[in-house]
Amino acid sequence: EIEDLRQTGCFFSWSNKKVGDEAVSKKLDRAKGNWGWFKELNHVQASFPTPGLSDHSPCILQFKLACRSGSRPFKYLNVWASHPEFLDVVRHVWAQSVEGNPLEAVSKKLRMLKPALKEFHKRHFNNLSTESAKIKQLIDIQQASHPDFLWEC
């Protein structure tokens, strides 16, 4: 379950260094990663620069962390929509009047919605991992006290 890393530079990594009809180029060298690699090192890409004296293009992986400017990107969580107050939060922000053409108005309202949803998350969903651990602990206790009972989640 591995895949090629993103690649820049030469597509063919080997050449017989001949020209014309005798020229042969192949993609022999690859940089690959599995799901764990892509999860932790998604910013790394393979660079295959033009070969020098060798018939192979070197493969260069640069592991420096990508510089992040600003704050973390905003991510919508589907679980928010299951909360009874979610639509009220959205309606409250969306009902506010803003100036500008329709596209600017949508953009401004989305920017206004971001802090409202962050606050909503803090109030209602911030301790999900703690709550999840508590529920798992309760299930483990119940399973230990009733080992013959079939539990379905």
Which descriptors would you attach to this protein?
153 residues; alpha+beta; 2 domains; three-stranded mixed sheet; two-stranded antiparallel ribbon; 37% helix; Exo_endo_phos domain-containing protein
Question: What would you say about this model in short?
Answer:
The chain is an alpha+beta fold and 153 residues long.
In terms of topology, how is this protein built?
Blueprint: E1 3-4, E2 7-9, E3 14-15, E4 25-26, E5 32-33, H1 35-41, E6 46-48, E7 60-61, H2 86-94, H3 102-124, H4 128-145
Helix pairs in contact: 2-3
Report on the structure:
The two termini are 28 Å apart. This protein has a three-stranded mixed sheet, with no helix packed on it. It folds into two domains: 2-65, no CATH class; 78-142, no CATH class. The protein has 153 residues and is of the alpha+beta class. 37% of the residues lie in helices and 10% in strands. The protein has helices at 35-41, 86-94, 102-124, 128-145; strands at 3-4, 7-9, 14-15, 25-26, 32-33, 46-48, 60-61. Helix 2 packs antiparallel against helix 3. 3% of the residues are buried. This is Exo_endo_phos domain-containing protein.
Number of strands: 7
The backbone outline, from C-alpha atoms, is: flat
Contiguous helical run count:
4
Order of helices and strands: EEEEEHEEHHH
Biggest sheet details: 3 strands, mixed
Q: Return the domain count.
A: 2
> Which parts are unreliable, with pLDDT below 50 for 5 consecutive residues or more?
none
Overall pLDDT:
85
Across the major sheet, the strand order is 2-6-7
Structural class: alpha+beta
The radius of gyration is 27 Å
Estimate the helix proportion, in percent. 25-40%
